[in-house]
Amino acid sequence: MINNRNTFGMSSRYGLLAAGLLALASCSPATNNGSTQASASPAPEIGPALQTVAPEAVGMDSDRLDRVTEAMQGYVDDGLLAGVVTMAARDNKVVHFESVGYRDLESQAPMSNDAIFRIYSMTKPITGVALMILYEEGKFRLSDPVEKYLPELMELQVYAGQDDEGNIITEPQQHKMTIRELMSHTGGLTYGIFAQSPVDSLYQDASLLATDLTLAEFTRRLGEIPLKHQPGSTWEYSVAVDVQGYLVEKLAGQSFGEFLEERIFEPLGMIDTDFHVPEEKASRFAQIYGYDDAGNLAQGEIFPDADFLQDPVFESGGGGLVSTANDYMRFSQMLLNGGELDGVRILAPLTVDLMHRDQTPAAMGGSILGAGGTSFGLDFAIIEDPVEAESYSKGEYYWGGAAGTWFWIDPVENLVFVGMIQQAGPRLPNVRATSKRLLYQSIMEPYGI
Predict the structure, then answer these.
(1) What does the alpha-carbon distance between residue 27 and residue 398 come to, in Å, rounded to a whole number?
(2) Which helix (H) or strand (E) holds 419?
(3) I need a labelling partner for 136 at 20 to 30 A (CA). Which of 49, 248, 352, 390 fits?
């Protein structure tokens, strides 16, 4: 049994990736239906941000909130998780910040609140914020064609089937892929790793996500492959956010990493968020685990060639960052505050609101990750119908990462939750649904009813 508990304040490569993606669909649901609320919560109390208070100070119950930690400890004790960090804030105040289990099972290094995690696709909302900073500066319109700024994607063709010899047939785009479609995963791109199709195979053949590519070379290679769908016709999770990272470079005239550091990380005090873990912080870097054939925890990177201890050439806007629970809480609280944290403004309130409105085409087929009651904005999934989505608040926005990290922002109940683990595979417990149910049952003074 692993029963370490640290408390602050209140009491195969493609298979693993696919498991991580499928888990994204459960970022929002809890196991109990809640009420559908359309009303907004009271305006958050601004600054100093994220001081620790008793849960009762913001209408929550301490004993009930402890159930979150108890549940995470249970997963550790059952050998399903190595270690977990969870953090919650309401009304701009931290009410829960705890860690259980181990950062590294082999060395028996305990998990700690300052552990550093591979956040993979939780990089995407950060990239979206970076791009919207440039949107506010008038550098582009959401309706602009992507090729206007990235000539590497000029005149893309669209997959239209195969001939009798198996050769790909293409057709012209019915309209040019727009930046809005790029940011909402409706531009016709794919990922090359979550689905099987002739276009996905071309992505793999081109090694699009190789760590030694520059963003420019990545985009050039992408421009030689046809789109999988007509722009605006289908929602498909894709490399679109890596393209957004290159778009930031082109519009800002500096490297993507430099832009993130200067315009987001440094202003928000996100001191541990980067594209790699420097040597002096390596002792805080959490080990990643899958499951062996017997169902036991086993070390293993999702991407075998990934080395987060080295500064990469490929600064992936779709999945390249490492971070801590506290750093990601600061980023998320900034969004809940309408673009501001501790007197530092990153975006205007209306720009943040634009990001978590449904941006998918009205005539688009299919659904978002097969999740009912869910739409997609600009690099966020959004709860439109809490009953159908088995969630609590209309307008909640969220995402997660392939190594199990997850977060959500609830503007009705005025709260943020961040969860950090480093695991993928068939035995991965539904920490997202569990944490959601247990967090909301601790709220004694709801704003939405």
Answers:
(1) 7
(2) strand 415-420
(3) 49
Residue 54 in contact with residue 93, Cβ under 8 Å?
A: no
Question: What pTM did the predictor assign?
Answer: 0.91
Q: What is the rounded CA–CA span in Å between residue 362 and residue 259?
A: 33
Amino acid at 298: A
**Chain Cα centroid distance, residue 93:** 22
Q: Where are the domains of the chain?
A: 5-120+275-343+351-440, 132-252
Res. 303 pLDDT band, cuts 50 70 90 = confident
Backbone angles phi, psi at 364, to 5 degrees: -65, 140
pLDDT per residue over 184-209, tens digit each?
999 999 999 888 899 999 999 999 98
443: three-class secondary structure by DSSP: strand
Comparing CA positions, the residue from 250, 246, 278, 248 lying closest to residue 263 is: 248
Coil, helix or strand at residue 298:
strand
Q: Strands, E, within 329-371: which ranges?
A: 340-341, 344-345
3 Ramachandran zone, left/alpha/beta (phi>0; psi -120 to 50): alpha
Total residues found in the chain within this entry: 449
Q: Which CATH class is domain 5-120+275-343+351-440?
A: alpha beta
Beta strands in 5-146 (DSSP E): 5-7, 51-52, 83-90, 93-104, 109-110, 117-118
- What DSSP line would sit under 304-320, residue for residue? TT--TTS--SS--TTT-
117-118/415-420 β-pairing: unpaired
Q: What is the pLDDT of residue 386?
A: 96
CA atoms 169, 175, 176, 179: torsion sign: negative
Residue 109 neighbours by CB under 8 Å, 6+ apart: 102, 103, 283
Return the structure tokens found at 31. 């196991």
The structure tokens 């390596």 sit at 282
Q: Kindly report, residue by residue over 33-53, the tens digit of the pLDDT.
A: 333 344 444 444 444 899 999
Range 307-316 burial, b when 16+ CB lie within 10 A, else e: ebeeebebbb
